[in-house]
Amino acid sequence: MAVILDKISKGVFQCIPLCFFWRRKAKRATPLVPELMPTTAQKFREDWTYNTNAIEGNTMTFQ
Fold this sequence. Notes:
The chain has about 60 residues and is mostly helical. The protein is about 75% helix and about 0% strand.
């Protein structure tokens, strides 16, 4: 069990710099056009749901 947790924690720590990279990139792209916010938020929710379901093994299709 300790070996598995060690591998997971290493993977998480390797992802942190990548998260900061994408955060900086997103901040440079702001501010978004207010008219696009509802569309962007909807797309984010759809992608989030799709990927969460895929991780859980469920199926979902985009309509």
